[in-house]
Amino acid sequence: MSERKTWQELELGVELPAATSLGYKTGGWRVLRPVWNASECIHCMICVNYCPDMAIPVTKSEEGVAGKGGRLFKGVVRLETNLDYCKGCGICAHECPTKCLSMIREEEAEQASCKL
Amino acid sequence: MGVRKAITGAEAAAEAMRQINPDVVVAYPITPQTPIVEQFAKYVADGIVDTEMVPVESEHSAMSATVGAEAAGARAMSATSSQGLALMWEIVAATPGLRLPIVMPLVNRTISAPLNIHCDHSDVMGVTTVGWIQIFSENAQEVYENLLLAIRVAEDTRVQLPAMVNQDGFITSHAVEPVEIFDDAAVRTFVGVRPLDRGLLDLQHVRTIGAMVLPDYLLEVKRAQEEAMMHVFEVYAEAGKELSAITGHQYPFFETYRTEDADAVIVVLNSAAGTAKVAVDAMRALGKKVGLLKPILFRPFPYAEVRDALKDVPVVGVLDRSMDFGAYAPVYTEIRNVLFELDRRPTTQSYIYGLGGRDIMATEIESVFEELLSGKLDPEHQRYIGLRG
Amino acid sequence: MPTLQEIALKTDGADARIVSGHRMCSGCGIGPLIKTVLAASDKPVIVLNATGCLEVTTSVYPFTAWNTPWMHLTFENAAAVAAGVESAYRSLKRRGKIDSEVNILAVGGDGGTYDIGFQALSGALERKHKFMYLVYDNEGYMNTGNQRSGATPFGASTTTVPAGKVSNGKPQWRKNLVEIVAAHRIPYVGQAAVHNTLDLYKKAQKGFNADGPAVLAVLQPCTTNWSFDPALTMQYSKLAVETNFWPLYEIENGVVHVNTKPSNRKPIEEFLKGQTRFRHLFKPGNEHVIVEMQKMIDDEWARLLKLEESGIQF
């Protein structure tokens, strides 16, 4: 926790610069964690566009990434969910047309990562 | 040297706005403010100004859109009275916290009920706690000059707070007086141009304005706002000096009239101060040592300076054109606060006058002086000028 | 034609106009709704936000989720604030103080739009300011815990009109905001739903590009106060469309066009079930309320098709 500003240090009219909420991690709210099976993904972007927390990053891939059926997906592809912000709502898993996403309990995920 | 024009107080406000030529003016008509808006609309229609004028559907939207324009980076103005101020109160109260230097003429009119369109100060006295700079004007000349001054004070980087310039409804707003209008170019140099650097339209600096502030920061925000208000005194004096170079007039925080050696002084705002000067002269002609103190800068209130001006006066009568039911009237309260620090305090008396546009005559003020000099006073109970029964 | 890929690219990374770290409820549809709408502007967007869920969750000092100029003033005046910003924009542009192009977006919930902000909205539309007004409609005052609004549907239980022994929830049908704003003869009005990303994006594009004011009304199922599993937000949105409860249509220069016509409209129960606010309707003895609701939905739908068919302009 950073030091709080004094009244002399405050911005005029408490104006804020852009996008400071990136410093506020909402991942701690999560009870369920999305697990993405990239080999079943068709990079349809449904989960990305639906994600309420803007927590599924995308990139432009010219060489392509392997997805469902070993197919190469070029262009805009999704990456791993950003767990710093994902609140675990499960919309991505519910709406995924290939069921390449599933929700597991956060403590299970943590235990699994401990074992690793 | 300016040009003398026979105009009303409302037209004087519009003249100031013509010279300021704001980027945006947003207003909704209300008696007795209407002639300001009408006159300014005519300037727009004739291409005398190139302001974007927005005639909205209510005062609430008027102040909301004015705030929107100011936050976007424009110099925006509005104008209102009474019920209009009451309807926009929510946004009026929000403006200082956003540190938006909006300047607005307020034509003082009583607040309903009962419905009455005439002058008193119950409108402005309902907003003196929310953080606007409050400037009062005795006549049309002062309305004009105070508006020019207000722009500079409000927009100064040390201040960045909104300002209201008050004038009495009908008495000042609708009465024709000779008003000296100064050179357009000189005035425009004086008011300058509002920089864009705090605006939403400054796309190089993407900003969030009006974030929600929780208990961890609200106190600090308000403390900073108070500091800005305290800077008004120095900025007002500096800007006043610059304006003097154009007008030849002085811009004190308050005016004293024949108070040196006075045995009794009356404190009164706005147009009644003019009447009081006539009464003072009449009394002085009879050898009675009386004087007047007319507050101009009411927020922030110059406590120390007023105290210094009143410290040797035996009796001070305060005339309020509004009431604070169950409490001392607003101007009386300030004067009592002023005097508290003195070891030897003057006796005070509170008077209520002029509600809902009731005329106050010089002879009535003379009677007040007589009463103050008689010593038959009751500082804890207000008296009413011209009350029947 | 936009693709989901293009939209996804615009809502992520440096181009995103709203970013992570906001405090909307888990599964809240406002996130996808607002990021899709913002992505549809090809110019910088200035956002004027009414008090409500979106505002309080994105601007808790010192954290702001906005990566675009944004302002909140109060509850009932987003349209008036937008009018002021738009007037400033035109003035400063004319005076040569700025040269960039921008779009202006006012956004509020249904409370800030149908109810307390209605006058400011009507005034701004009548004056023909060039801006888009976006309402995310969660059918009540959801930010403060499910109070009734003018957008709350017939039969819904709210904390201010609860279902009880002698009450079946809200006795009135909702206000038809789309038709009311269309009556202002504005160039574009769209009704969209959060699950249909492409339709929402296209409508937002049309709104931003309209030659005058535009209004976009988007249904936003509220996981918290309609109380359903947060994973189901898009499903409820979809059901609202498939039951004709929330038709997707637009009124472009006065001409009505219905975008989606479900071939087999689902019974309204499909939408109602699982939502706490309609739970009482499934109690024995309350069947007539659902029957009445179904009739109203079918009548409204038939009327909408007639409007489209007639070609009569708003």
From TrEMBL, chain A:
Residues 32-61, 77-106 form the 4Fe-4S ferredoxin-type domain. One of its GO terms (molecular function) is oxidoreductase activity, acting on the aldehyde or oxo group of donors, iron-sulfur protein as acceptor. InterPro entries: 4Fe4S_Fe-S-bd, 4Fe4S_Fe_S_CS, PorD_KorD. Transmembrane segments: none annotated. Keywords: 4Fe-4S, Iron, Iron-sulfur, Metal-binding, Repeat. PROSITE patterns: 4FE4S_FER_1 (PS00198), 4FE4S_FER_2 (PS51379). Its cofactor is [4Fe-4S] cluster. Gene3D superfamilies: 3.30.70.3270. It comes from the Bacteria. The keyword Metal-binding applies. Pfam families: Fer4_7. This is 4Fe-4S dicluster domain-containing protein.
TrEMBL record, chain B:
CDD domains: TPP_PYR_PFOR_IOR-alpha_like (cd07034). Residues 15-237 form the Pyruvate flavodoxin/ferredoxin oxidoreductase pyrimidine binding domain. Residues 262-365 form the Pyruvate:ferredoxin oxidoreductase core domain. GO terms for molecular function: oxidoreductase activity, acting on the aldehyde or oxo group of donors. GO terms for biological process: carboxylic acid metabolic process; response to oxidative stress. SUPFAM superfamilies: Thiamin diphosphate-binding fold (THDP-binding), TK C-terminal domain-like. It holds the Pfam family POR_N. The keyword Metal-binding does not apply. Keywords: Oxidoreductase, Pyruvate. This is Pyruvate ferredoxin oxidoreductase. It comes from Candidatus Cryosericum hinesii. The lineage of its organism: Bacteria, Pseudomonadati, Caldisericota/Cryosericota group, Candidatus Cryosericota, Candidatus Cryosericia.
TrEMBL record, chain C:
InterPro entries: PorB-like (IPR051479), THDP-binding (IPR029061), TPP_enzyme_TPP-bd (IPR011766). PANTHER family: PYRUVATE SYNTHASE SUBUNIT PORB. Transmembrane segments: none annotated. One of its GO terms (molecular function) is oxidoreductase activity. GO terms for biological process: small molecule metabolic process. Residues 51-218 form the Thiamine pyrophosphate enzyme TPP-binding domain. It holds the Pfam family TPP_enzyme_C. This is Pyruvate ferredoxin oxidoreductase.
